[in-house]
Amino acid sequence: MRANYKMQRLYVTAGLTAGKRAETGPEAINYLANVLRMKEGDEILAFNGRDGEWRAALRFESKKKLSLEPLEQTREQPAPPDLIYCFAPLKQGRLDYLVQKAVEMGAGTLQPVVTQHTQVPRIGIERIEANAIEAAEQCGVLAIPQTREPVKLEKLLEGWDGNRRLIFCDEGHETYNPLPLLQSLPRGPLGVLIGPEGGFSDHERQVLRKLPFVTAIPLGQRILRADTAAVAALALIQATIGDW
């Protein structure tokens, strides 16, 4: 079944199954009861990334305790997307946007990557996870992407599965049109690599271009911000060789 976008959606950590109430945390209580003014018996769509999506009724057991009563499974749990999304962290607001759009567009794994020009000294994994959940709630996504610990670019490439094609956006590419390059690639597992606000260094670009599992693509003749490049790249890749 297709997602019902008219009902409020909520991510929960508890298991979801018919006949067994699922407890929520204080943030959910505040949001549903105080912000949305929902009451006993009102229904939402609940999901946890494991048990599919459920139509569930609110059960206020006390002022500080709220449970969800699963009534009917509206969608079964799909297989998680196989796309690994590798990105150099950006400043907070732009990073939030980048993560949310990656989830909307089918990223299955979020991999922060530290490059030579990365300017963010501390990477908040919990904030990335929170943005991924928020995007999933708003866009009907059921599979919450896995968020990995940050890794340096060198380590990422050393441990990369050579059977998985890694596509990186290279502003120094010889052509402006990425479509012929993407259309020439065989279907298979994919990874996407987005650089930092200052771009990849010349050394990093040389290293990437020498690897047999890496494909460099351009993103047109204009210089794009890193967060804009992320959305453009994912749209192109998903539409040509991805799951669209």
TrEMBL record:
Q: Name its cellular compartments.
A: Cytoplasm
* Name used for this protein in its record: Ribosomal RNA small subunit methyltransferase E
Q: Does the keyword Oxidoreductase apply?
A: no
GO cellular component terms listed in the entry, alphabetical order = cytoplasm
The family note in this entry says: Belongs to the RNA methyltransferase RsmE family.
**What sequence ranges are listed for the domain Ribosomal RNA small subunit methyltransferase E methyltransferase?**
80-238
Q: Name the Enzyme Commission number(s) assigned to this protein.
A: 2.1.1.193
Domain named Ribosomal RNA small subunit methyltransferase E PUA-like: which ranges? Answer: 25-70
As for what it does, the entry says: Specifically methylates the N3 position of the uracil ring of uridine 1498 (m3U1498) in 16S rRNA. Acts on the fully assembled 30S ribosomal subunit.
Alphabetical list of SUPFAM superfamilies matching this protein: alpha/beta knot, PUA domain-like
Q: Which GO terms describe its biological process?
A: rRNA base methylation
Coiled coil ranges (UniProt) are none
Under catalytic activity, the entry for this protein gives:
uridine(1498) in 16S rRNA + S-adenosyl-L-methionine = N(3)-methyluridine(1498) in 16S rRNA + S-adenosyl-L-homocysteine + H(+)
Q: Does Methyltransferase appear among the keywords? A: yes
**CDD domains assigned to the protein according to its UniProt record, in alphabetical order:** RsmE-like (cd18084)
Q: Which Pfam families match?
A: Methyltrans_RNA (PF04452), PUA_4 (PF20260)
Cited InterPro entries:
Alpha/beta_knot_MTases, PUA-like_sf, RsmE, RsmE_MTase_dom, RsmE_PUA-like, tRNA_m1G_MTases_N
Keywords recorded for this protein, A-Z: Cytoplasm, Methyltransferase, rRNA processing, S-adenosyl-L-methionine, Transferase
Q: Which GO terms describe its molecular function?
A: rRNA (uridine-N3-)-methyltransferase activity
Q: Which domain of life is it from?
A: Bacteria
